[in-house]
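User: Can you help me understand a structure? I only have the sequence.
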Amino acid sequence: MAGKEAYITGVGQSEVGVRLPRHPLLLTVDAVREALDNAGLRLDQIDGVFTYPGKMNGYTAFSPVGSEDLIEVLGIKSKWHMGAMEQPAQLSAIGMAAMAVKQGVCRHVICFRTVYEAGGMADPAQYMSGAKQDTVTGSSQWTSPFWATSAACWTAQYAARHMHRYGMTREQLAQIAINGSKNAMANPRARAITKEELTLDKYMSRG
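Assistant: Let's start by predicting it. Here is the structure, written out as tokens:
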């Protein structure tokens, strides 16, 4: 039966760090189990799995775990699962899960995102397949020659254009980074990466 609403009932997070030796799939399982405990659900109640952007080999451990990996390792009886670049960024997995619940396709859905790029650089033989190529195709041909391989590089251009057109200042833009830093400082696990809170003076001094 289709429902009128969909709710986020549990949240989980794995260990956070730089170049963690633990396999990304095991980190994902840690986060999923914590989310289940937080929601008060059993694994056999899960009937959907959504992630973004799905398993990818084109970038160094950018997305090393797909929905099918999690389904197989945990034995999830999935009615519908998805992970694809066609979705518009990370929150799309939550949007797709909400739609599945509202339409009555699934009742309890796991949404996850696994990022393991720093760990991948520590084990290039396993995670850097396809990263070293003589040629590039698709949209990468317009970005890779300029080393613009990160979303931070792409969005920086949009931000620069917005500042030029609408007069947004660096002080205003800084609030995004400062807010992110405050949130990280409130998370004990993030302390492995965020050692001290970012201030406006520190932000402006970095050029």
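Now, to help you interpret it: The mean pLDDT is 88. Residues 24-39 form the longest helix (16 residues). Let me know which part you'd like to focus on.
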